[in-house]
Amino acid sequence: MKDAVSLRTPAMLCAMIISLTGLSAQEAARPNVPDDLIDDPHVREELGINQFTAPSIKRIFDDLDKLAPLPTEEVAHKMPERMPLNRSDLALEIGFLIADGFMAVQAGQLNKIEPLAKELSRYGRALGAGERVNRHAASLLKSARNNDVESLKNELSATQRDVETDLIHLRDVDLAHLISLGGWIRALEVGSLAVDKKYTQERAKNLYREDITDYYEGSIASLDPRISERKDIANIRLIIIELRTVMTLKEGEQPSAEGVKKINELAKKLSTLALSRGQ
Question: Please, which domain of life does this record's source organism belong to (predicted)?
């Protein structure tokens, strides 16, 4: 009897923790964020959500600075005027918008900030985080007028963080992770094209992050089944698994031009799926 009880204890303890914290089983099983992608960990720890938070899009784009100039115009996406009806689609597209903001700042295209801020406000209202996003949109416009690049990056990062916090308070943790997923997909799409156009092994090393693919694959697996089992989301997960295989180098192996082309090919497929609105 004692052995039977001891075998059940870990499961019972896990269930108690989930019950006491109000976390779903999916949230409790979510993988840890790679250390170098955690933004402002002290603030997140105070919120008590550090182990469930999403990677910072700003941190993802810090690495892309090494790949400048970024060929954003060659793979530009225009969001439809009609808003998506599904909240998961809203979240993925907000990730793309925030990512495009970082790339516009990196390229010095500050004229793109005003329309971007308007789009972010529109999407923020649709997700239920309009008040916070509106404040950031106003700050984005002010920083753009002042040509304050660092403030623009900080505001974009804070936009993600504040929307994420609102979603967690609304018990929509899954959507916070989809925002980050959208941003990473956009970064990979542009970054892999930049390396393909100007290949060196050193530049390619910035793409070979199997730990990030591990995180996002596990994150999708832990989403509510109503989201993770959607055909487009399930296909995104399969492509990320394939990406991990391409990005994993054997001991002594170096990145290759062929590998970068394959990463870019898969990143384009991810982008198409992420913006497909479940179609």
Answer: Bacteria
